[in-house]
Every structure is written in structure tokens, then in C-alpha cells.
Amino acid sequence: MSGGTIVAKRYARALFEVAREQNLVAQVEEELRSVLAVIRDNPDFGQLLQHPNIASAAKVEMVKEVFGDQLSETVFNTLCLLLERRREDALSYVLDAFVAIANEALGQANAVVTSPTALSDKEKEEITAQFGKLVGKKIRIENVIDASLIGGVQVQIGDRLFDGSLSGKLTRLQNSFSKAQ
């Protein structure tokens, strides 16, 4: 485990405790995701935040200008703390650790569901119910579209992959024929 992830877990744990006390866990997660999306979508902004020759106070002002009052005080203060302590590079790790801590505490799991087309609400509900029973947690779905699957779905929960796709079945069938020869 790298030093960056250890530090990120400490920040994430503290942020989670504050968010839980204020009953803002979901909001804090969403705000962290939006901050990372802005940084990802605007690489120049991300580079400015990471630049070692820019003072922390100037970085805090940039964050204040860009996000204004879009962020809760909790998330804004956490960002300021990361910037002041020159831990800008830990932000994505803090989000990952925060999500992991929140999921564990709230009995949730994130599932990346890959399908050839967008899932309907009914399909999402069915997948949530089935896999929720399987893993014993409340499932939160992120739908990723991959037309190469042909049909069916792949469900990734943590490090477990459940492949019910048509392309996966064809691959397994091909492998069994190869072994038989």
C-alpha cells in the first residue's frame, strides 16, 4: 500500500465521520465526484492545482472561484486542507477511500453493469435485487455500454466479475471446444 493511499484513507475516514454526523454522506460523495469531474474535464485547472510553484492560498482561491457555493462547507474545507498540506494528488484516492468506507458502513456495494444497450429502470431493479441477495448488500449500479457484448450483461462488484454476456458465453464455449481437441 503506497503512502498516498494511506494518507487518503485517513482524510477519507475523517471526512466520512463528519459527513455521517451531518447526515450528508451521499451529498459529500456526489460533490467529490463533481470536483474530480471538473478537474478531469479541465486538465489545465488540474495542472494549476498540482503546480508546486503556486502557493496554497492561491490554489484555495482558485477552488473558491471555480466552485463558488456549489460545495458544502465540509467538502470545501477538506479540499482546502488537502491544498494547504500539498496533498492535491491524493484527491482521487480520497474519493475512492471515502466511497469504500461509506459503502462498508452503509452496507452498500457499487456494481458496474456492462451491457450492449442502456438498461431500463426495470432491468436495473432486477439486477439490484438479484445481486443484492447474492452479495448481501444494497447495490448501486453504474451502467456502462459496450456493444461488443452482443447481449446479456457483465456485472463487476468489487473484484468479482459475473459474466452473463453472450460474447462471454461464446468465449467459454470456444475454450471448451479448444480443450476437447
UniProtKB/TrEMBL annotation:
SUPFAM superfamilies: N-terminal domain of the delta subunit of the F1F0-ATP synthase (SSF47928). InterPro entries: ATP_synth_OSCP/delta_N_sf, ATPase_OSCP/d_CS, ATPase_OSCP/dsu. It comes from the Bacteria. Keywords: ATP synthesis, Cell membrane, CF(1), Hydrogen ion transport, Ion transport, Membrane, Transport. One of its GO terms (molecular function) is proton-transporting ATP synthase activity, rotational mechanism. One of its GO terms (cellular component) is plasma membrane. Its main location: membrane. It is found in: Cell membrane; Membrane. Pfam families: OSCP (PF00213). It is a peripheral membrane protein. This protein is part of the stalk that links CF(0) to CF(1). It either transmits conformational changes from CF(0) to CF(1) or is implicated in proton conduction. F(1)F(0) ATP synthase produces ATP from ADP in the presence of a proton or sodium gradient. F-type ATPases consist of two structural domains, F(1) containing the extramembraneous catalytic core and F(0) containing the membrane proton channel, linked together by a central stalk and a peripheral stalk. During catalysis, ATP synthesis in the catalytic domain of F(1) is coupled via a rotary mechanism of the central stalk subunits to proton translocation. HAMAP family: ATP_synth_delta_bact (MF_01416). This is ATP synthase subunit delta. The gene is atpH.
